[in-house]
């Protein structure tokens, strides 16, 4: 570490400095957009860090994206801590946020705090995220923040409540829903959250909430009026699901499919390995 510091210029070191909650606040104040993606493994996290991404969220979306489940509800603390440790090992600049899985913070504030602590001590994260408003989880949020762990909130469509919500529905439509969502966002700010994810939220409402908060909003399917954007990394590579709000930035799916098919073909035909791949 020390040698790495000595090898770099001061400016390079400043550019590499870890993104912190204070950095994100400065971005909001200056209007610089915050970039976030999910990450679940070391090689992907390394590339994301090198690309200059601000936040890597080790999302419980790992349940459907990586593990092939229908939802995230079966994802455990042990799984989340494991994936967080892989990502944290690669992230030199980006803030690593560990996503608290279903039932890791709902039972009591004490259990929430213990589990949040595992993301930091075992996972190497710099912050955690949990879903839901402060009128339900305010005690847990305050306990975690009180212990020195930054908390990112998550409102709008909250995947861990998919069965209660009754499906993947846009949130904040209609005057009552709009007001409720705004109140919930202000409640999370008051409880001590450093940022709030707004998922599947009417774009006008998300923009209004962004104006009302002093902490940054990070949108996913919530329009361009948020302070930052987050997407699932597999989706932007064409490896996940297609949605209206996401975009494929690179077709890794075709690239991988071709590489796998070529490998199978060459081994079957005896075209690989050749002499150049052999040890003598
Ligand atoms: O689990 C996840 O990946 C998330 C993001 C989609 C915000 O919560």
Under CATH, the topology of the largest domain can be stated as TIM Barrel
Count every beta strand, where a strand is a DSSP E run of 2 or more residues. Answer: 8
Between the first and last Cα atoms, what is the distance in angstroms? 38 Å
Low-confidence stretches: none
The coarse overall form would be: globular
* Total number of domains: 2
The CATH architecture of the largest domain would be: Alpha-Beta Barrel
Outline the biggest β-sheet: 8 strands, parallel, barrel
What topology, given as strand order, has the largest sheet? 1-2-3-4-5-6-7-8
Helix content: 40-55%
Q: Quick one: CATH superfamily of the largest domain?
A: Phosphoenolpyruvate-binding domains
List the helices and strands in order: HHHEHEHHEHEHEHHEHEEHH
- Indicate the proportion of strand residues: 5-15%
Q: Please tell me the overall pLDDT.
A: 95
Number of discrete helical segments: 13
Radius of gyration: 20 Å
């Amino acid at each position: 570490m020390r040698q790495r510091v000595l090898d770099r210029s001061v400016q390079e070191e400043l550019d590499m400095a870890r993104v912190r909650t204070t950095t994100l606040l400065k971005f909001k104040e200056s209007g610089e957009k915050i970039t976030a993606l999910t990450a679940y493994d070391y090689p992907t996290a390394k590339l994301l860090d090198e690309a200059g991404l601000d936040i890597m969220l080790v999302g419980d979306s790992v349940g459907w994206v990586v593990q092939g489940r229908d939802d995230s509800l079966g994802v455990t603390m042990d799984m989340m801590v494991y994936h967080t440790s892989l990502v944290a090992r690669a992230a030199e600049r980006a803030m690593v946020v560990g996503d608290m899985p279903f039932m890791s913070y709902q039972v009591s504030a004490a259990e929430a705090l213990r589990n949040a602590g595992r993301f930091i001590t075992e996972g190497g994260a710099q912050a955690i995220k949990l879903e839901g408003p402060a009128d339900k989880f305010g005690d847990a949020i305050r306990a975690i923040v009180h212990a020195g762990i930054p908390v990112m909130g998550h409102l709008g469509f909250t995947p861990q409540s998919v069965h209660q919500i009754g499906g993947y529905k846009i949130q904040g439509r209609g005057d009552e829903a709009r007001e409720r969502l705004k109140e919930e966002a202000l409640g999370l700010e008051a409880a001590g959250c450093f940022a709030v994810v707004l998922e599947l939220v009417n774009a006008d409402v998300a923009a209004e909430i962004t104006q009302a908060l002093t902490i940054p909003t990070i949108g996913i399917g919530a329009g361009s009026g948020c302070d930052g954007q987050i997407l699932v990394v597999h989706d932007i590579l064409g490896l996940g699901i297609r949605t209206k709000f996401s975009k494929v930035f690179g077709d890794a799916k075709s690239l991988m499919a071709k590489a796998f098919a070529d490998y199978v073909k060459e081994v079957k035909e005896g075209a690989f390995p050749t002499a150049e791949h052999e040890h003598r």
